[in-house]
Amino acid sequence: SSTDLGQLGEGGPLYVRLQRLIRAAVNDNRLVIGAALPSERDLSEAYNLSRVTVRRAIDELVDDGFLSRRRGSGTFVSDTAPRTERVEKSFSTLSSFSEDMKARDRIPGSRWLTRGSGFVTPEEALSFGLSPGSPVHRFRRLRLADGAPMAIEISTITGFALPSVEAVGASLYDALSVTRCRPVRALQRLRAETAGEERAKLLEVDAGHAGLLIERRAFLADGRPVELTRSFYRGDAYDMVAELGV
Ligand code: 16G
């Protein structure tokens, strides 16, 4: 084919499939910011699509700010192109990052930034209701979906819940299920925060990027605290949704 964008996937209208292909190419850097998109004619020939379909796909991506047109020279990947499709995350269920991603057919990933074991800080002891000197495990992880960074998570886990920090593989909640310490109740607090240099670099966004910080304090049925996690989510990758009743 005359393009390197790969195969058109299945499911949904043709113009949506072409959009998915273009977004995926940007996601995994086959099309970098500023790169020119193949011409509409090349796309329609390569994928056997009508020019109307190709134009519709591209027009929408231009409207979204994902692509931009420069008169006379073609269509380019915008420098504001969000590198991921937004994910709707429930704000009212006690799900794990891995479960959230699998539910959306994304492959969850995790990269260790730091990990170790130690003792509670006076602050953690107070907010957790733990005795001073209680053992805890601590780690920082970069969370990925299909290889693209989505969130940074900083966790403190009470000592009794895990034999060691190495017991955590790809999923913390899987490890906590094994020790029968998966939490069943949690308090969450959400606030807006911007990404400083360090967060921005890890999440591959510009410094000053608007993110969502969610703090989760999670407990066992008997009230013992298990987890204190601060998750910094990319603001361009998430919508927080909750079902409310009266
Ligand atoms: C979610 C949780 C986080 C938990 C993690 C476990 C929120 C706001 N936070 O990100 O508290 O530690 O999932 O995910 O939902 P894992 O089992 O994939 O490691």
Describe the structure.
The chain is α+β, with helices and mostly antiparallel strands and 246 residues long. The protein has two domains: 14-77, Winged helix-like DNA-binding domain superfamily/Winged helix DNA-binding domain (Arc Repressor Mutant, subunit A, Orthogonal Bundle); 87-241, 3-Layer(aba) Sandwich (Chorismate lyase). The chain contains seven helices and ten strands. The protein has helices at residues 14-27, 40-47, 51-63, 97-102, 122-128, 172-178, 197-203; strands spanning 67-70, 74-77, 87-90, 108-119, 135-145, 148-158, 185-194, 210-219, 225-234, 238-241. It has a six-stranded antiparallel sheet with strand order 4-5-6-9-8-7. Strands 1-2 form a two-stranded antiparallel sheet. The longest helix has 14 residues, at 14-27. It is elongated, with a radius of gyration of 22 Å. The protein starts with 13 loop residues before the first helix and ends in a 5-residue tail after the last strand. The mean pLDDT is 90. It binds 2-acetamido-2-deoxy-6-O-phosphono-alpha-D-glucopyranose (16G). 2-acetamido-2-deoxy-6-O-phosphono-alpha-D-glucopyranose (16G) is lined by residues 96-98, 108, 153, 155, 171-174, 214, 216, 227, 229, 231.
Radius of gyration: 22 Å
Bound molecules: 2-acetamido-2-deoxy-6-O-phosphono-alpha-D-glucopyranose
Major sheet strand order: 4-5-6-9-8-7
Low-confidence stretches: none
Q: How far is the N terminus from the C terminus? A: 56 Å
Q: Just give the CATH class of the largest domain.
A: Alpha Beta
Instruction: State the secondary-structure class.
Output: alpha+beta
The ordered H/E elements are HHHEEEHEHEEHEHEEE
* Main sheet attributes: strand count, strand direction, barrel closure: 6 strands, antiparallel
Strand content: 25-35%
CATH superfamily of the largest domain: Chorismate lyase-like
User: Level of helix content?
Assistant: 25-40%
Keywords: DNA-binding, Transcription, Transcription regulation
InterPro entries: Bact_HTH_transcr_reg, Tscrpt_reg_HTH_GntR, UTRA
Protein name: GntR family transcriptional regulator
Pfam families: GntR, UTRA
